[in-house]
Design a protein that fits this description.
about 30% helix; DHBP synthase; globular; Rossmann fold; binds magnesium ion; about 20% strand; binds threonylcarbamoyladenylate
């Protein structure tokens, strides 16, 4: 029997009972639990096989609740919340004592956002507590952007995937921390840097492994299919180098129709980066189930959302 359902009251019942529910957001599906339930939070880490040093994002119903979660809100954090919430930006700020250490992996800061999905906003409004929700995939696997992706991963572990349809943004939120009240990007994501800079001015990016103490989730291998994956700026050349293999090809907007290719996925025939981002993980899930020898992914133009897409594709290539 399917665990996918649109029944919000069932989700409320399970969450009130310290159980987990997969919830839709605009970015990816999350594996959600009550932030104040140690039982639920431990279940999140166990179900995902996530290392305990990797902290969770707290999801709140509206920006008015931010001061319940954090002790200090820099001016530029306010500007970002006003500009982008509900939406795919996560702010990392000093945590209130009431936020359990297990959520933040003993860090003094907490990551928080207001997701932009009508079902999950409705759910959060009806609950008496915020939800911790990492992406609903086993640690380091491809994130889920459709309810079926979650069901395939966790049908034996959870009772409900709240159905909110396919995610419209399709890559995770942009994570922003603060040093001396100045914003710094810890994870590239659904909101392009250029858009963030229109609100707060020039912003530094520390999206690499060396900031792992600040953003421990930024591990090199992440979002990764089981199938070997390469990222290339020269599709034709890379096809030549992989003769006689079963190849899956993911391109931005050009159909290649090369006879060498077993399976091809064009992310946006109109060369629209938003559309491409929304389909990226679905393409990876699709290819990973095709019993291929290799997935070849075409590099994106390195601006706007293209930067975030390239970041995810690069991590998908690591072994
Ligand atoms: O779009 C998203 O952000 C999705 C949806 C479900 O909201 N969630 C998501 O969660 O991507 P997760 O757990 O897969 O990634 C959370 C990231 C991790 O890289 C973690 O290291 C970082 O947030 N993080 C959490 N708390 C942090 C903190 N206090 N300081 C720095 N990074 C933090
Ligand atoms: Mg994740």
């Amino acid at each position: 029997m399917s665990i996918i359902s649109t029944d919000i009251s069932k989700a409320i019942e399970l969450l009130n009972n310290e159980e987990l529910v997969a919830i839709p957001t605009e970015t990816v599906y999350g594996l959600a639990g009550n932030i104040y339930s140690e039982k639920a939070i431990k279940l999140i880490f166990n179900t995902k096989k996530r290392p305990s040093f990797n902290p969770l994002i707290v999801h709140i119903a509206s920006k008015d609740r931010l001061s319940d979660i954090v002790t200090h809100i820099p001016e530029k954090a306010k500007l970002l919340a006003d500009a982008f919430w509900p939406g795919p930006i996560t702010l990392v700020l000093p945590k209130q004592k009431s936020i359990p250490n297990i959520i933040t992996s003993n860090k003094s800061t907490v990551a928080v956002r207001v997701p932009n999905h009508p079902k999950t906003l409705e759910l959060l409004k009806q609950l008496d507590f915020p939800l911790a929700a990492p992406s609903a995939n086993p640690f380091s696997n491809i994130s889920p952007t459709k309810p079926e992706h979650v069901e395939n991963y966790f049908r034996n572990d959870i009772k409900l995937v709240l159905d909110g349809g396919p995610c419209t943004s399709g890559i995770e939120s942009t994570i922003i921390g603060f040093e001396n009240d100045e914003p710094i990007i810890y994870r590239l994501g659904s909101i392009p840097i250029e858009e963030i800079e229109t609100i707060v001015g020039k912003i530094k990016v520390k999206n690499k492994k060396e900031v792992s103490p600040d953003a421990p989730g930024m591990l090199e291998r992440h979002y990764a299919p089981k199938t070997a994956t390469v990222l290339t700026d020269n599709v034709i050349e890379t096809l030549k180098q992989n003769k006689n293999k079963r190849i899956g090809l993911i391109t931005f907007c050009t159909q290649t129709e090369n006879i060498q290719v077993t399976s091809e996925f064009v992310l946006s025939v109109n060369c629209d980066m938003n559309e491409a981002a929304s389909k990226l993980y679905d393409a990876l899930h699709y290819m990973d189930n095709k019993n291929l020898d290799i997935i070849i992914a075409e590099q994106f133009p390195n601006h706007g959302l293209g930067k975030s897409i390239n970041d995810r594709l690069l991590r998908a290539t690591k072994r």
